[in-house]
């Protein structure tokens, strides 16, 4: 017997994107890194270790993206065809301030059109102000490890608030700040590619906290009733052997450093929690300290573990804030798992809600196959495929399944 999983009438159903990953034609610290000699050298070395098959370096350059800078109306129509009532989009800082002390009025005009177009389709709008990318001049001045970046960012926030604030329902000041701290300054996987630079990591961490808190004040000064948060990428850390004290300690430490530390610092400056869920980490006491069972994995080898979203939602209860799931999705080119993935995750979201979690919405990552950062174009996260040459969009079968869920506000499970 199937059960009906039904969400509340006013639940936000949406899709999630970021500016850099879809717009195309952007110049910022990421676009520069993608074609830097170090990056090309790294990818070429990676090539040689592959079994025969050579990687195409162009697959690691964002370039024209999904051409969404030109096709945003078409994208919003696609989102509408999914029966979603909300959309999460982003603004690219490097377009607004391509040079120090320069405001590009054409970019402002453009984003007015984008927000008007989203509004005209009746979407509730979640707007992201910063999704990891920085204007090149900011990077040249030392990026977020430099305190001056904070002042520049706050000027940008003031401007965006005044220009577009009336159109925004929910704000994301910073996307997954912990990912920038760790990939930018510890693993070196993302620009500015510093490895184990703990001092800079710590400065960046502090400046991002300040950036969020002060942005919160700025936005609320103009719009007292609007809703402001960050997106937090929260992982479900789980101890593997219940008898193992070391694992218990490790699990607590990982959970604290990754999930709790940033949130705790800003908890008085958020109106809701923006949750991104992708990862389950089964902690073991021996290196590399993580061993997942991986019964099913995505194209990127990430374990599919839907009950993890339930565990994370349970943890968030202590903050006593409404929660919006702003990102959840998978790389699945053949669309083998996506429909079931969505239903399984929503099942656990619903279960957590029945047990008291105040979840207000679910946004699938992503609307389109977009530029997946260091992984390039290989990872296909879209409900819609995008032809790399013509930019033609085509619905994957799971898009129809998601449209049905959004239309009915639930599904049989
Ligand atoms: C990021 C997205 C990214 C997605 C899939 C999230 O952490 O916000 O930009 O594409 O995960 O990796």
Question: Can you walk me through this structure?
Answer:
It is a single chain. The chain is of the alpha/beta class. It contains 14 helices and 14 strands. The strands form 4 sheets. Strands 2-3-4-5-6-8-10-11 form an 8-stranded parallel barrel, surrounded by 5 helices. A two-stranded antiparallel ribbon has the order 1-14. A hairpin with a 6-residue loop joins strand 12 and strand 13.
**Alpha carbon gyration radius:** 20 Å
Read across the widest sheet, the strand sequence of neighbours is 2-3-4-5-6-8-10-11
Category from helices, strands and their pairing:
alpha/beta
Average pLDDT over all residues: 97
Q: What portion of the residues fall into strands of 2 or more residues? A: 15-25%
Largest sheet: 8 strands, parallel, barrel
What compounds sit in this structure? beta-D-glucopyranose
SSE run: EEHHHHEHHEHHEHHEEHEEHEHEEEHE
Number of strands: 14
Low-confidence stretches: none
End-to-end span in angstroms? Answer: 9 Å
SS field, number of helical segments: 14
Shape: globular
Helix content: 40-55%
Blueprint of the fold:
Blueprint: E1 4-6, E2 12-16, H1 19-23, H2 29-34, H3 37-49, H4 68-81, E3 86-90, H5 93-96, H6 105-120, E4 124-128, H7 136-140, H8 148-164, E5 170-175, H9 177-185, H10 198-222, E6 227-233, E7 236-239, H11 245-266, E8 273-276, E9 280-283, H12 307-316, E10 323-327, H13 338-354, E11 359-365, E12 384-386, E13 393-395, H14 397-408, E14 410-412
Parallel strand pairs: 2-3, 2-11, 3-4, 4-5, 5-6, 6-8, 7-9, 8-10, 10-11
Antiparallel strand pairs: 1-14, 12-13
The protein binds beta-D-glucopyranose.
Beta-D-glucopyranose (BGC) binds next to loops.
């Amino acid at each position: 017997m199937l059960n009906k999983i039904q969400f509340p009438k006013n639940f936000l159903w949406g899709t999630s994107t970021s500016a850099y990953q879809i717009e195309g034609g952007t110049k910022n610290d990421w676009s520069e890194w993608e074609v830097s000699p170090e990056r090309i050298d790294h990818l070429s070395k990676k090539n040689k270790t592959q079994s025969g098959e050579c990687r195409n370096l162009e697959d690691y350059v964002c370039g024209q993206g999904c051409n969404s800078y030109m096709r945003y109306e078409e994208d919003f129509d696609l989102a509408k065809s999914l029966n979603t009532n909300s959309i999460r989009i982003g603004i690219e800082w490097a377009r607004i301030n391509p040079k120090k002390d320069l405001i590009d009025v054409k970019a402002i005009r453009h984003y007015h059109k984008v927000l008007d177009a989203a509004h005209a389709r009746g979407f509730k709008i979640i707007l992201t102000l910063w999704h990891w990318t920085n204007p090149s001049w900011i990077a040249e001045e030392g990026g977020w490890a430099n305190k001056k970046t904070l002042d520049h960012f706050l000027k940008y926030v003031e401007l965006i608030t005044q220009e577009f604030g009336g159109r925004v329902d929910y704000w994301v000041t910073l996307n997954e700040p912990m990912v920038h701290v760790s990939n930018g300054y510890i693993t070196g996987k993302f620009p500015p590619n510093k490895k184990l630079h703990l001092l800079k990591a710590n400065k960046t961490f502090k400046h991002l906290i300040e950036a969020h808190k002060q942005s919160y004040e700025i936005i609320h000064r103009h719009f007292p009733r609007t809703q402001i948060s960050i997106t937090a990428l929260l992982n479900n850390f789980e101890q593997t052997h219940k008898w193992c004290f070391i694992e218990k300690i490790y699990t607590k430490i990982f959970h604290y450093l990754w999930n709790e530390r940033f949130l705790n610092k800003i908890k008085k400056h958020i109106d809701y929690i923006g949750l991104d869920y992708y990862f389950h980490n089964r902690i073991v006491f021996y290196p590399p300290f993580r061993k997942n069972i991986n019964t099913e994995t995505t194209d990127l080898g990430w374990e599919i573990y839907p009950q993890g979203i339930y565990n994370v939602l349970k943890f968030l209860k202590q903050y006593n804030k409404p929660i919006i799931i702003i990102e959840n999705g998978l790389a699945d080119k053949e669309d083998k798992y996506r429909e079931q993935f969505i239903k399984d995750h929503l099942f656990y979201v619903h279960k957590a809600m029945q047990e008291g979690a105040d979840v207000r919405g679910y946004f699938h990552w992503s609307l389109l196959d977009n530029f997946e950062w260091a992984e390039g174009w290989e990872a296909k996260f879209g409900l819609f495929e995008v032809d790399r040459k013509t930019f033609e969009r085509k619905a994957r079968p799971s898009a129809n399944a998601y449209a049905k869920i959004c239309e009915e506000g639930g599904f049989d499970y």
